[in-house]
Amino acid sequence: MLREVRSLRLEDHDVGLVAVIDRFDAADGTVVPVDLRKGRPDSAGLPWPADRIQSLVQAMLLKRAGYRVHHGLLYYAETNQTVPVELTRRLSGRHSTWFRRPGRLRSSRVPRCR
């Protein structure tokens, strides 16, 4: 049975991330996050790095919420093209370290951070 959910907000306070997933499809105990993009993929037909990272964050938050996720999808409306984003153990492990909760930001250019 396939079920489609639109606009799901997920947050994880341990890693300090919030994501709104445009759509995710659920079937046989596995979910696939689908991010809807207005533009197009790069000239090689691959997702842009920022789009890929966003898809990985969505998958990571779904996994941390207890869902089984094996890949994500990026839909580019300009070219009507769907590009998969694979979640290998090495890839999801490497990127998940980018999202550790940072310490307090200190910047002389931001008044409240001085």
Question: Can you give a write-up of this model?
Answer:
Helix content is about 20%, strand content about 40%. The protein has 2 helices and 6 strands. A hairpin with a 4-residue loop joins strand 5 and strand 6. It has one domain (about 5-100): Alpha-Beta Complex (Lambda Exonuclease, Chain A), CATH 3.90.320. The model is unreliable at about 90-105 (pLDDT under 50). The radius of gyration is 16 Å and the shape is globular. It starts with a strand and ends in an 18-residue tail after the last helix. With about 110 residues, it is of the alpha/beta class. The relative contact order is 0.18. The longest helix is centred in the middle third of the chain and has 16 residues, at about 50-65. Strands 1, 2, 3, 4, 5 and 6 form a 6-stranded mixed β-sheet that branches.
Quick structural overview:
Helix content is 21%, strand content 38%.
How would you sum up the major sheet? 6 strands, mixed
User: Which shape, going by the Cα principal axes?
Assistant: globular
Strand proportion, as a percent range, falls in: 35-45%
Mean pLDDT: 80
Number of helices: 2
What is the CATH topology descriptor?
A: Lambda Exonuclease, Chain A
Order of helices and strands: EEEHEEEH
Structural classification: alpha/beta
Tally of domains: 1
**How far is it from the N-terminal to the C-terminal residue, by CA?**
54 Å
Which stretches are poorly predicted, pLDDT < 50 over at least 5 residues?
91-103
SSE blueprint:
Elements: E1 3-12, E2 17-27, E3 30-37, H1 49-64, E4 68-69, E5 71-76, E6 81-86, H2 89-96
Parallel strand pairs: 3-4, 3-5
Antiparallel strand pairs: 1-2, 2-3, 5-6
